[in-house]
Request: fold
Amino acid sequence: MKNYLILGIVLTAFLSFHKTQSQNKKKPNVVIVFIDDEGYGDVGVYGATGFQTPHIDKMASEGMRFTNFYAAQPVCSASRAGIMTGCYPNRVGINGALFPFHKKGLNQNEYTIAEMFKDQGYATACVGKWHLGHQKEFLPLQHGFDEFVGLPYSNDIWPYSSQTGKRLPKNKGRGKLPDLPLIEGNETVSYITSFEDQDNLTTMYTEKSVEFINKNANKPFFLYLPHSMGHIPLGVSDKFRGKSEQGMYGDVMMEIDWSVGQINKALKKNNLEDNTIVIFTSDNGPWLSFGNHAGSSGGLKEGKLSSWEGGQRVPFIIRYPNKIPPGTVCNKLGCAIDLLPTLASMTKGKLSKNKIDGVDISSLLEGDFQSNPRKTLLYYYGKNNLNGVRKGNWKLILPHSYSTYQGALGNDRSGSKKTKIVITKPELYNMIRDPGEQYNVYANYPEKVKELMEVVEAARKELGDLNVGIEKGTGNREPGIVK
Reply:
């Protein structure tokens, strides 16, 4: 009798484990490859020239690419806050690019995309550039990730010259910065102190990502791979150095493409290809200041650090075999803040009670282009400046100031100086006829201006707008602060 009881217990445990494994296998794995400072025109299927991206292009042929997809803001930390929380970055108090002297980071009360997956039993990893607070309480392991290997912020935030690689004077400018740490978990394991160290980043991130996939092949996983490249100073391994017609930046993009190929190869090797959602996109447009060491906006106006299209419209490709129709192009609006609610919908995850700004765009991913889940887009920049708004195919630029690099681009590792421009009157653009924002039709469509201004006023009430002296709205939340 005792033996039968033991057998029954073992059988029940086995069936329970098998049921759990079966349920887990139904959950798709998710991989987000997030590139730094890659422009709209820096992928083959988006018109890249001087280098090839065959692995990323293959993803597009097997999945869907968007032509009107936007980063949350045109700068590092803010953009990453958007993808992590599903919110406009100014809602959660994150702006600009955080430096080691900042005492703030992503508030632990924010519910991240990693926590959404972790609550479903996913293994979670962040491999690459974090940039949402470098103190321990702000690092990935405190925001839903089981594993983290990478840099706490951008690869140019170090006490070395990004032009020569030499150590800068310790009492002046960037020379005062601490050494750039490579972190594993919550601990620093080494430092990035040379261009040679920078050259290893893309390969190292890729190898760590493949290890994570291999290790978790039998359970659902979420891999967030925010590459440090192509942020300056550019680094590339010998595998791709000198391989492109475009030069160093093209070499870097070719290695990024190789990285995507390695990720997909690991998925195929583990028979996970058909049950994995793979996303490829960028944190903002190209940093045009660096000329031939910068990317291409693909003919869009301006680049990183601006609210013109070149600053925020980015490549977006998603593949999910048998779920997303292959070789399709979506022209509807999408934004990085939509990924959290969309992936929650696709994996049956839950959202927090915190107000978010992202919308579920899974209907578009299923090929229903009659649906229109994202009707408007707010172009916030800086601490809380509303510089523009888009509704459908119309974009209204609001009075604001910005810096341009036009006519004074740098060369090789040297950046150029900025010229400040002040926009004193609103401008209106038709995104179908004029994606390059060259022809202001404000005077021709007063009814469209009125319609868009209604969106502006609602946004100012909820989130504020420093351009008109409204510091905060009713919906802003505080970032995390280290005392």
The longest strand covers residues 29-35. The chain has two domains: 28-375, 379-481.
